[in-house]
Amino acid sequence: MSKPLSPQTMALVKATAPALQQHGVAITTLMYQRLFVDPDIKALFDMAAQESGAQPRRLAAAILAFAQNVDRLDALKDALERISQRHIATHIRSEHYPAVADALLPAIRDILGDAATDAVLAAWAEAYWFLADILIARERELYLETEPA
Ligand code: HEM
């Protein structure tokens, strides 16, 4: 379990919610462009859901919901469970998470522009790993259930 986010980190992340509401799909579309430079990562995804815009919209909604509820993650329980189930179905592993961080954080920086101060980006980096650790832990449990040793 990762260290809880500080009140300052939560406040910085929460303060980006209005910008994410406005620019979330631009951020995730740019993120996927960066991510798909790696053909092995690209192969994990259903390209029809990319081209229709469905997956960039789903990820943008998840990131916005996370920013809005970062101080009360209970509200996200069902959504996180659904994401983990989908990740299991598409064979996502903990070792994939750094590539998403490396694609998402620069996309936040590029789209938010001046609003993405160093403090905001540091808060988002910490928040990304906090969220990733929750998903990774749940996915590990689900893999253990489906792949007995
Ligand atoms: C904190 C990090 C992450 C978040 C918040 C996240 C969020 C999501 C969401 C909201 C969905 C859609 C679930 C649905 O069907 O309703 C999804 C699906 C998916 N995610 Fe993630 N994800 C994360 C990390 C990753 C990583 C590291 C990978 C692998 C590179 C990945 C690959 C996928 C794939 C392949 C799908 C299925 C999309 C499809 O149908 O093509 N995700 N994720």
Would you summarize the structure shown here?
The protein has 149 residues and is mostly helical.
Describe, in plain words, how this protein is organized in 3D.
- With 149 residues, the protein is mostly helical.
- 74% of the residues lie in helices and 0% in strands.
- It has a single domain (7-146), classed as Globins (Globin-like).
- The chain has helices spanning 7-15, 17-35, 39-42, 47-51, 54-68, 77-89, 97-112, 118-146.
- The relative contact order is 0.17.
- The model has no long low-confidence stretch (mean pLDDT 95).
- Residues 41, 44-46, 49, 55, 58-59, 62, 82-83, 86-87, 90, 92, 96-97, 99-100, 128, 131-132, 135 line the site of protoporphyrin IX containing FE (HEM).
